[in-house]
User: Which sequence fits this backbone?
């Protein structure tokens, strides 16, 4: 019961909620640029070392996903190859390509917001991430899902 | 029987062999740069519109695979999002990340050289490429495999 609030202050966020909020900020940046609103941050020892949002329209590159931006930025910051101690926070369940990238980075943990039943990597019945990568889904799920849902609604 | 040779000239190459040879040239460029020798080209209507080789060391980016370079170069050349009419030639069977990228590009065809039993996308029992993507493997397989095999032998 860590988050019961006895004061008038707003309830404290868990670290996962805090960093997912940062990923949501990235998603809103994508939205402001008329991109599908998906955002990501990479965190190492409590510090954000990579940020990214969907840039498929701006770069005319269907592979320019939020996760790819955040992971390469993080690896660049680290100056090394692997992100074993790092967590990727992303507002939507990663696709197969991004989960495949996470394999190569030997990512420590993936925390995602909304589930993507159709295109998320979780639809596969074989593990494609690194054997040591921990997966958590559903953090701030509603906010993450609603951003994408409203985006596509406004397109119709 | 298109390739029977009645003259003293060397036998003609099939288009697949010709373009795989171009991918092999890219792989040798990688080798010269001390990268794992994997190369790729993207072909549209008989013309090479994207080239790439493995740049994981130079870019310190484990996701900088030959296919990713060639696909983004091709999409950039096309100025559009999709590569429906295009074929990716790559010397090694693509990994899950690259096959996942090919899904987003709605790639017409993938032709690869050597099989990658451990990390190739073919190990998965579900299709992760686009439903319309045609897959062919084993073109100039020995040359493609030998390049990578010799590279790792020389590392030991």
Assistant:
């Amino acid at each position: 019961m860590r988050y019961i609030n006895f004061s008038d202050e707003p309830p404290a966020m868990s670290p996962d909620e805090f960093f997912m909020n940062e990923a949501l900020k990235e998603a809103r940046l994508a939205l402001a640029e008329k991109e599908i609103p998906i955002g990501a941050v990479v965190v190492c020892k409590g510090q954000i070392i990579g940020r990214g949002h969907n840039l498929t329209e701006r770069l005319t590159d269907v592979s320019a996903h939020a996760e790819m931006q955040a992971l390469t930025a993080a690896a660049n910051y680290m100056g090394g190859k692997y992100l074993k101690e790092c967590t990727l926070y992303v507002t939507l369940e990663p696709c197969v390509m991004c989960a495949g990238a996470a394999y190569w980075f030997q990512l420590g943990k993936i925390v995602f917001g909304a589930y993507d039943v159709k295109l998320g990597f979780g639809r596969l019945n074989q593990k494609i991430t690194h054997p040591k990568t921990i997966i958590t889904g559903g953090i701030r799920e509603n906010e993450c899902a609603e951003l994408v849902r409203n985006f596509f609604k406004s397109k119709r």
In short: Chain A touches chain B at residues 56, 60-63, 68, 71-72, 75-76, 79-82, 95-101, 103-105, 123-126, 128 (CB under 8 Å). Chain A has one domain: 13-120+137-153. The CA atoms of residues 16 and 34 of chain A lie 27 Å apart.
